[in-house]
Amino acid sequence: LYPTVNGRRVISEEYKTWREIAGWQLKQQRPYCAVGRVHITIRLQDKTRSYDPDNRQKALLDLLVTHGIIENDTNKTVRRIETIVDEGIIGARVEIVSAPPPAQTARVAA
Fold it and tell me: What's the alpha-carbon Rg for the chain, to the nearest Å?
């Protein structure tokens, strides 16, 4: 995603191309925007060559934020994230569901 050039991290041309194509594919689906806390499940294609699922996860989260599908990818918004490598998937599939509200804690007067 980010090779180092002259001591600085830069976005690779391959990643720029992927972001543009994936962004258009996302827009074509007309997904709903999630508001507030979410749980995310990412299913990735099982490829013959090895790859780092964490890098794919980060790219997909950044794409969702860029297109306003989720507010941000901080722990305040993304309450649970699961990444699954799945032989039945081509490319990637992302499912977003609303997370339950935070539990209320009772305060006891002393």
Answer: 17
pLDDT for res 110? 65
Q: pLDDT above 90 covers what percent of the chain?
A: 71
Q: Quickly list DSSP for 39-96.
A: EEEEEEE--SS---HHHHHHHHHHHHHHTTSSS-SSTTTEEEEEEEEETT-SSEEEEE
- Rounded CA-CA distance 86/44 in Å is 6
Q: Nearest to residue 94, comparing CAs of 68, 71, 63, 66?
A: 63
Give residue 57's pLDDT.
Answer: 95
What's the pTM value of the predicted model, to 2 decimals? 0.82
- Give the residue carrying structure tokens 């258009």: 24
The two structure tokens encoding residue 101: 């509200």
If you count them, how many residues does the chain have?
110
pLDDT tens sequence across 83-103: 999 999 999 999 999 998 887
Tell me the two tokens of residue 46. 């099982």
